[in-house]
Amino acid sequence: MFAVRQLAAVLALPLVLAARPFVDAKPHMIDKAHSEINFVADSRMLSAHGFFGKWDADVKLDAAKWENSTVAITIDAASINTRQERRDGHLRSADFFDVEKHPTITFKSVSVKSTGANKLDITGDLTVRGTTKRITVPATMMFYEGGTGRFRGQFVINRQDYGVSYDSKLNPIQNDVQVQWDIALSEPKPAK
Description:
Elements: H1 2-19, E1 26-30, E2 36-43, E3 47-52, E4 55-61, E5 70-76, E6 80-81, H2 85-92, E7 104-116, E8 119-128, E9 131-145, E10 148-158, E11 173-186
Antiparallel strand pairs: 1-4, 1-11, 2-3, 2-11, 3-6, 4-5, 5-7, 7-8, 8-9, 9-10, 10-11
């Protein structure tokens, strides 16, 4: 009977650990004035530089053990801005992001791994236009001191992977889109 209880305890351990929140990962608030999510999409006639004006993030960091950290980002797809209203309207349409059917772009981490001095790989699920793909986002820690820091990085996605497949014969659009991000954050200050 004792052996059966021991076996049950061993088998239950992974479930208990998976359900246990990362107690050392502390919530952080995004400093929106010093944070941005940008992209560059190339076509024959133009390299369209744009950004998303409305987004939020749920970030929990454990600087002593980065693998305990988590990141979840939600972007308002309609907030796309390439500084040209006609182009932005087209990007919001069913030809591109189809924001009426798919109002958000999301990223949710499944792992965070230190890859060297001030370098992290954040692996997670990116959902664009209702399609989810697992990607790894490299991050550089510019600084992290006393619960406040800045992280930045860039990566490339293939727009076709997410069903963003519109093209123009007169102005062909490259499939690879470069995403650049820069996020400043800090632990919430205790209430006085």
